[in-house]
Amino acid sequence: MPAALALARRGLGSVWPNPAVGCVLVKAGTVVGRGWTQRGGSPHAETEALVRAESRALGATAYVSLEPCAHQGKTLPCAEALIKAGIARCVVAVEDPDPRVSGRGLNQLRQAGVNVEVGILADQARDLNEGFFSRIIKGRPSVTLKLATTLDGFAATANGESRWITGSLARQRGHLMRAEHDGILIGVGTAVTDDPMLTCRLAGMQQRSPIRIVLDSNLRLPLTNSLVTTAQEHKTWIVTKSDSNKERCAAYGDYGVEVLKADVGPNGWLSMKHVMNVLGGQGITRLLVEGGPSVASSLFQEGMVDRVAWFRAPTLIGGDGINVTLPLGLAKLADAISFRRLSIEVVGEDILESFSVVP
């Protein structure tokens, strides 16, 4: 199962709206087939493993990181494919929450006489596909907020200078994170100030760039911005208010930018909850946020952050720096947002701490 999970990770960021799944076929102690979900979500992991195993799949054990699907899509249902191949045993990490599957795949296997075991490394499997589970159960992607600050917690100097707080290795690590997410989101302020590309620029991984998403309530992103002018090469979405100017929306469309509409919250800004529901409806399962203090604050205030990836550089700016969030309006320490530390990683001269937000 660890091997199946490792194979599944290869699909992160490139298989949405499908889950990233890995499958290992073992017979008489020998691996006879391996597979993982392919780009765009098809073919599925089990299909790939069966193709490699050929006739050796007969009597084999299939280790699968997620319940084999039981519904007809672009390919034969995986549960049916495993049955037709004649496997004897199927070890599954976790049940699929998709109502089209949700136990049906397991039942099909059992009814065909396959010995089925469920729950092996279930927590790791659920964690790996947290985004898929979130989209199916909550209707929104899992959200990872990426922050880069000095030791004293500032994201920029008083005049807004932030390039580069962290070193080159940390920036490369950030690009790897982009490759493992379906979409990357920033606010229009960051888009206008930095004119970023938001692509993955690791050698050999440029094709793994995520969908670029800009929050822009009033459609003030210039048509000359790099995110607009390169939208034909790198898919770009703008999320704006439901009543935004139709002619302006059409102008973005002429450049290949897709404009999505979301509701406005009581503070006059876009509702982060509705934005995430809109993105979930588009199939996004894993969202990386690299926005500024306004976006970070809005996400925290509406409970839309699941994880934080916090890069810290061994430098100090002082009290006149710019914080990573705006004031959150918390009057009591008991109301502070709590985190559970998942890992600490040394990245060159910098530190990357990963946290999950405590509900």
Describe the structure.
- With 359 residues, the chain is α/β, with parallel strands linked by helices.
- Helix content is 28%, strand content 24%.
- The chain has 12 helices and 16 strands.
- Strands 11-10-9-8-12-6-13-16-15 form a 9-stranded mixed β-sheet, with helices on both faces. The protein has a 5-stranded mixed β-sheet with strand order 2-1-3-4-5. The protein has a two-stranded antiparallel sheet with strand order 7-14.
- Helix 4 links the parallel strand 4 and strand 5 (115-118).
- It is globular and about 65 Å long.
- It starts with a helix and ends with a strand.
- The mean pLDDT is 94.
Q: How much helicity do the residues have?
A: 25-40%
Number of beta strands: 16
User: Can you give the mean pLDDT?
Assistant: 94
- What distance separates the N and C termini? 29 Å
Query: For the largest beta sheet, what order do the strands appear in spatially?
Result: 11-10-9-8-12-6-13-16-15
Number of DSSP helical runs: 12
